Amino acid sequence: MKDKGKQASKLSRRGFLRLLGSGMAAGTAAVTAGPSARAASTGWLPAQYQTHGRWPVQVRGRIPLASDNPAIVRDDRKCILCGQCLEVCQRSQSVYGYYELPLKNDIPCVHCGQCSLWCPTGAIVERDGIAALEAALADPAKHVVVQTAPATRVALGEEFGLPPGSLVVGQQVAALRQLGFAAVFDTNFAADLTVMEEGHELAARLGDSQGRLPQLTSCCPGWVKFCEYFYPELLAHLSTAKSPQQMLGAMVKSYYAERRQLAPQQIVSVAIMPCTAKKFECSRTGQDGLADVDIVLTTRELAKLLKKKRISLADLPAAAYDDLLGQASGAGAIFGTSGGVTEAVARTLYAMQAQSAPPPELLAFKAVRGLAGVKEATIALPERTLTVAVCQGLRQARAVLDRIKSGERRWDFVEVMACSGGCIAGGGQPRTMLPPQDELRQARSRGLYQIDASQAAVRVSTDNPAIQELYRTYLGQPGSERAERLLHTRYQDRSSQLTASSGATGGETHG
Amino acid sequence: MANGVLVDLTRCIGCGACSVACKLWNDIPFAADKPMSGATAKLADQNWTVVKAELPQQDGQTVQRFVKQQCLHCEQPACASACFSKALERRPDGAVVYHPDLCVGCRYCMIACPFAIPKYEWNKTFPLVTKCQFCADRLADGDSPACTSVCPTGALRHGDREALLAAAWQTIRHDSRYIRHVYGEKEAGGTAWLYLSDIPFQELGFKTDVGQHPLPAATNTFLKYTPLLAAAWGVLLTGLYYYTKRRREQAADGQKEEA
């Protein structure tokens, strides 16, 4: 007792209070700095989700995307679960919801990229190809060449403040040369090549009685994968001709490599495309296990790269494509819009059969132009009249495909483009309007028809001197052994990767 | 009514909308090194729910399945019984909620939980425990949890637990693809979240060794005597004190008398 009393007297009353005060201050600071309650949340959410209540929320979820999807990726931090991707995937493309659950070993996706055009926050975008391209351009051992699709030239300008549909053909070439590409090719040239091969194949199918009609187009990789998933019984109808992108890639690594005395392994083949599915398509192997195209950039990515390099597209003087693999007919240009392939093939078939120029109605084939989901027409060729159907938007295509399958209707030639409007409104195009409107599609489409009608030196693929030279000096005839090896491909039945449904069941959305 | 959620794993497409809705509603930051979906998805202090991709075998073929993970909200939660500061509480509506203002950070709940759900904010100066709250404030307002309200395929169904359980068995009886087990019906004494699957649960990473008895019951049989024991101990010591005190006094008195 005595000892304790001594100790207590050492601490004055003031000292004791000071000690107590500072302790309390430290405690208060700790509590204030610590985290607050989590039992009731005050988090941010999209407006349609913000308030409590018994109303069903207007938030719809989102499409599934595999983490290894080669074409599109999603940033969770930007997603607001608005469900626009579901809408377009299900109602316009008929992919989501058209398979039974549970899933098998695949998350079905045709890589069309329409979801990236509809996503209001930019959460869904193409898988980045810029880094790979910059690495290739920086490597002195690589010979980096590029091709540009028909539809990029009417949309790239939108990223630089030009009105929709502005033609930036020459500026695009100039910009690509500034980026350091060794050569700039035109995919329109390969479109002409596709017309030659596909036209030859159609002529052969018309001649035999195997019942492999109609011939289905194979230029659109989204549609091709869709066919592999949902219509495997129609794969025999699908033209074996590669798409223009793949054909040009194949020509670069054979014809061009030979002419320039380059090893195909040394060439990095780049494609600027209005499309995300092209990123998937380039993984289909070409000749000798080499990819026809190594890197695909969307129109949006090209714009991003140009802005990064401070290249102002609109201010550039126009430049011309390389002579080799760079000259194209007007028929090649209109490949980028729905109905264009049909029109191009019709012109070429006519020219082949009649040995004369096609009549004016085939040079402005009104019946296959425009934005209707399914367009039907007849083509009066000298030998016979062809019936054709042109579909845009995969859901619209189903109506035609189902009738082919059941034998209810017979067509000779059916064109399918996965995206409504064709490539000009492809999943890799600038997000000028959200969601993309017909007005925008029409403006871009007009641009392509303008190239065909008033800028192209020739209007028919067979008249393209570069094509004639390619066949004379390298390929021989359309459908020759070499052409078959380089320009044609095989398809894969993917129907076992999912259980297709009519769309009524499966992933029908609730709520 | 006790809330429940029925997860039909055959209907999950792995879109991950639920995990994003959780982040949005609860205002939790995204962490690049803590994925919310895919094969490497893991519950973490910032991930209250994740969708884990699994690749089990079915009929000799590899198939994809997606498993949504979050707190299962036990009917008799071990975490709440382990928590001496009452920071974890099971509400009558079925939600097992965490009150951070009561938490002392001992992490007993993390050890107690048979499903390893509660996570600790290791990288914070003043860390707390985190876990799914069943959107208790939404439940209180008659809403569904944020995650279940954004599921596009109906893989997540929110409702009365008993009704969902009946629906689950109905589904199993009518569809031979499903395995005859509702995970969560009896696990650890029953949980609010119930799972249906066409693949055995252990192949999908579920803990199937948690038993059917509620975990608090395991310790309650003897721990319930703790207060009685404490009181009896006090009485005993007090008695001993007075006994020794009295003996000492008596001894002192004896010495005085002798002197």
Description:
- The complex is a heterodimer of chains A (511) and B (259).
- Chain A is an alpha/beta fold and 511 residues long.
- Helix content of chain A is 39%, strand content 10%.
- Chain A has helices at 2-10, 13-33, 84-92, 114-118, 130-138, 169-179, 187-207, 221-230, 244-259, 277-281, 299-308, 330-333, 340-354, 360-363, 394-406, 438-455, 465-475, 481-487, and strands at 72-74, 124-126, 143-148, 183-186, 215-216, 267-273, 295-298, 374-380, 385-392, 413-417.
- In chain A, the strands form 3 sheets. In chain A, strands 4-3-6-7 form a 4-stranded parallel β-sheet, sandwiched between helices. A 4-stranded mixed β-sheet of chain A has the order 5-10-9-8.
- In chain A, α7 (187-207) packs across α9 and α7 (187-207) packs across α13 (340-354).
- Chain A starts with a helix and ends in a 24-residue tail after the last helix.
- The model of chain A is unreliable at 35-40 and 505-511 (pLDDT under 50).
- By secondary structure, chain B is α+β, with helices and mostly antiparallel strands.
- In chain B, 33% of the residues lie in helices and 16% in strands.
- Chain B has helices at residues 17-26, 78-82, 108-112, 136-140, 146-149, 161-174, 215-223, 226-258; strands spanning 3-8, 37-38, 50-54, 57-58, 61-62, 65-69, 88-90, 96-98, 119-120, 129-130, 156-160, 193-196.
- In chain B, strands 11-1-12 form a 3-stranded mixed β-sheet. In chain B, strands 2-3-6 form a 3-stranded mixed β-sheet, with no helix packed on it. In chain B, strands 4-5 form a two-stranded antiparallel ribbon.
- In chain B, a hairpin with a 2-residue loop joins β4 and β5 (61-62).
- The radius of gyration of chain B is 25 Å and the shape is elongated.
- Chains A and B meet through loops of A and α1, β2, β5 and α4 of B.
Write a concise keyword list for the protein shown above:
A: 511 residues; alpha/beta; four-stranded mixed beta sheet; 18 helices; 10% strand; B: 259 residues; alpha+beta; three-stranded mixed beta sheet
